[in-house]
Design goal:
By secondary structure, the protein is mainly beta. The chain has a single domain, classed as 7 Propeller (Methylamine Dehydrogenase, Chain H), CATH 2.130.10.10. It is built from 1 helix and 28 strands. The strands form 7 sheets. A 4-stranded antiparallel beta sheet has the order 1-28-27-26, with no helix packed on it. Strands 2-3-4-5 form a 4-stranded antiparallel beta sheet, with no helix packed on it. It is globular and about 45 Å long.
Amino acid sequence: MSVYGLAFAALACTSWVPTCVGQSAAPDAAANPASVDTNQIAILRWYPANRVTRFATGNAPAGLAYDGSSIWIANAYSNTITRLRASDGSLLGTYNTGDWPCGVAFDGANIWVSNETSNNVFKLRASDGVLLGKYTTGITPTGVVFDGAAIWVANSGSGTVTKLAATNGTVLATVTVPNGPRGIAFDGANIWVTSYGSNFVTKIRASDGSVLATYQAGTYPIAAVFDGTYIWVANSRDNTVTKLLAADGTVAGTYNTGSQPYGLAFDGSHIWVANWGSNNVTKLNAADGRLLGTFTTGRQPYAAAFDGTNIWVTNYSDNTVSKM
């Protein structure tokens, strides 16, 4: 299968790039939704880069998420998800998914995986990987995010976003967005969706699924991340990231990255950009977009996640994940 379209790959699985993007949430959120701090869920925080270590995954690692102790990695060609201990990269388990798993999200107790060619999401118990449910989405589900109560899935093939109850997978809403939804992020109150087919970013109110606004991004926006104040968007064909004020979508800056930026992560102070085309990650100062460093990864880095101390990057064509 060719991957040029994806972003947090998924441009749809018809191009030469991967397709997913995952995001993690604060531990115990699903277990006690009444006490959930959605701002903490939205921000993912924290740190400085050091050396790079690589660990083996399945074939074509795409999206990934952190659950408080482990890193979960969707292996698109293997139809599996790998669980690694974050402290030392030890393999803790490999579990079956649907076809072409891409996006990964953590809800505080469970791991959710979008399966692009199965048109569904799997819910796995984070403690032991047991499959708890399979739920139908739109066509070609890619990016996945948790908002403190619900799971949101960007369906790049059907131009929609599906909202599922995290407790039982019930469909709570289906929201139409511009062509090619793919990357997805939560800002504590709203869901942001990048549409690579139309170069737009859509802001959706999480509580009821109302579309609040649509903003222009760069060319082929495929990933998004929230830093506490701004939404950052990776524009894979511009080799840039756009910084939008979450309150009203005002463009606060546009900054150069490496070639074909696909994945984004925020560490509390910096934005990390996985550059598919240049086999590296770019570290930007979140405050002003200044370039602070460029670090080599494996081949075709696809997605990034932060574990509170380290940045993890999936290397799609190396079948590895880098820990920085």
